[in-house]
Amino acid sequence: MAEIIVLSLFLPLLGFLILTLFHASLSRKSTGLIACASVLLSFLCFFSLVTTYMVGTYEDTTLLLFKWIPIKGINADFKLHLDELSLLMGLIITGVGSLIHIYSIGYMEEDPDYIRYFAFLNFFVFAMLLLVLARHLLLLYAGWEAVGLASYLLIGFWVQKKEAGDAAIKAFVMNRIGDAGLLIGILLILYTFGTGDIGELAEKLEGGFSNTKLITLITLLLFAGAVGKSAQIPLQTWLPDAMEGPTPVSALIHAATMVTAGVYLVVRMNFLFNLAPETLNVIGFIGALTSLLAAIWATSQTDLKRVLAYSTISQLGLMFLATSVGAYYAAMFHLTTHAFVKALLFLAAGNVIHQMHGVTEMNQMGGLYKKFPITHWLFLIGVLALSGVPPLSAFFSKDIIVELEHITGHNFYFYVGIIISLLTAFYLTRAYCLTFLGEEKGSHQNLIKEARPVMWVPVSILAILAIVGGFLGFCFCPMPLLEKFLIDIGITPGEKELGVNLFNHIETWFAIAATLFGVGVSYLMFTRYVKKYNVTFQFIKKAFYINEIYEAVFVAPLKKLSKVIVKGIEPHLIEGSIEGAVLGVNGVGKFLQKYQSGQVRSYIAWMVLGTCLLVAYFIF
Fold it and tell me: What would the pLDDT profile of 538-558 be if each residue is shown by its tens digit?
């Protein structure tokens, strides 16, 4: 088993190294084969571990590879830990990742930097696996930062595109803000508990912890990292801009895997968050606010990828909302189904964008169901699944979160969840109608045709998962992997009751009604494209101008300050001090030059004098 765990982690890294070191001698065909095989083999390793688990021979495994930071109070060993949570995340990362790798063969076929793209994609998969398999918090942080680096490289992959470069820098900087909080939180844990080993921490905190203020501070700092990585308010503005990268990147990194790292962190450290009810309240508030506002912003976007980006932010908010009431299983359940559905939506959208040569604006689309007889059905499945139409996957996972808010007494969040269900159905149906229904637009329509099988076959597999994914949960078909996961991380009685009597709850029917109402209203409104937008529409489309506010309050003053430093301070203070130091050294040299007579007896005299002075100093 140890060998399989090591292989599952390092196979994508091996693919990255081969593509990087031997890029000059690799053909496009061999590049795609190496990149896809490395991730697919990693998936098969994880899948073999699942089968081992299902026959009852699986146990949680901690594997020490080598001593990493052997410092007292830290002892950050390079340990890998495989349990139900990391196994589930590994399956999602490599399973969805391998499909996106295969899809990318077709999507990136004409790109001149084909090899660099797949190398970065392999590196991202390795970094994400390192994050979820890490046993020590510092190793987790190393994976966390590596994921951020990979995201930066892939968002700005098209280096000739200024918008992509700006988006990459923005994502990198905004994530560093959250990452600073995460690092401080980890250092506080090391200082307070003397260990960063997650298993040891859980054992130490089994009996609770008396200093609740310190625990609250630590968990808030950890959550700050989650806010940045998972694009929650107020650090959410980087994710819509990240859509400037290739669409498969958006599907893998900014929908299915990287942005869920924040949710994973909270679930992984649930034993710590359970001791900080104030932090859980903050998580609930941030999650609800983000989910609601992002859903509102998605209703007015005209860029197809930005609709899906705001949708991702909204669904991540729902996952955090679940963790705030201790429903960690529900959060992971929705994370799983969301990975299937959102990857499906992004890749189906990618088919359209690729065949339309980069067009992402829905006002240049319309009537495309005739041109995309396969893709439009796949996109529709994704729309209905994420909207929460039964019996598709997100109906089970999303509605359980909404109803748990009611069962646990958080009625306000329950009503917010109902509104989010309605808005989700509304904006996704709107996107489908504006893209595939209505009148054809543009003279180029006759040149458009369905994508090649290498692109729609992986999307079809995701569509199947989007249909049946809900039954992987504990609701109707308990699966050992998820059922044991429930026991290990805890589950409220209300959640288990929902699993048996889901349709017996009136809240379920409220959620279904809201979903169907959103679908119906959106269909009636947008089968014809609305050409005139009022001021309110533009205000929502601009996400309440939060980007512009950040630009005016933070970015613009910093740019002005940097100009002042460059033009005013640097020439006089920095360059002046350097020139002064040079002049000083020259002066000292000229002074000492007087004593360089070139006579040996003079040098001996100076040495004797110096020796006498030293002897006198030590004697007297």
Answer: 556 555 556 667 676 666 777
